[in-house]
Amino acid sequence: MKELFVAVMFMFLSGCQPSIESELEGRWAGATTAGQEIIMIFKENSELNLQVSEDIGQGIYSVNGSSNPYDLDIDFGDRGKIATIIAINGNALTIENNGLGKARPLSFSSKATTLTKQ
């Protein structure tokens, strides 16, 4: 009986954890390592609005919440796709990528960008 209670409580508490998608939703802002202002707005329908300095783009994102760090893929349509890794720590989002159409990075480097949730 005790094992059943523990199993049920684990399932209940696991279901209460926020999903990576819900943690991502909202407006994140900061600056790239090159000093460019960056704003990312993740919407609940998997849409992403991205602004880097004066360049504005829209895309569709998907995230793999079972990888560590998380895999975040962004499809900008005709502009291309980008494979990134991300980590969320409270109100801080760290993101690393190698550029449009390039392989996903395996780990974070000194070039990673950290954004703050607004």
What does this structure look like?
The protein has a single domain (25-117), classed as Lipocalin (Beta Barrel). Helix content is 16%, strand content 46%. It has helices at 2-15, 20-24; strands at 26-31, 37-42, 47-52, 55-64, 70-75, 81-89, 92-97, 113-117. It has an 8-stranded antiparallel beta barrel with strand order 1-2-3-4-5-6-7-8. The longest helix is centred in the N-terminal third of the chain and has 14 residues, at 2-15.
Please outline what is shown here:
By secondary structure, the chain is an alpha+beta fold. It is built from two helices and eight strands.
Task: Give the SSE layout.
Elements: H1 2-15, H2 20-24, E1 26-31, E2 37-42, E3 47-52, E4 55-64, E5 70-75, E6 81-89, E7 92-97, E8 113-117
Antiparallel strand pairs: 1-2, 1-8, 2-3, 3-4, 4-5, 5-6, 6-7, 7-8
Strand percentage:
over 45%
Q: Tell me the series of helices and strands, N- to C-terminal.
A: HHEEEEEEEE
The gross shape turns out to be: globular
CATH topology: Lipocalin
Instruction: State mean pLDDT (0 to 100 scale).
Output: 87
Number of domain modules:
1
Number of helices: 2
Unreliable segments of 5+ consecutive residues: 4-16
Gyration radius over CA: 17 Å
Helix content: 10-25%
Pick out its properties.
alpha+beta, globular, 16% helix, eight-stranded antiparallel beta barrel, Lipocalin, 118 residues
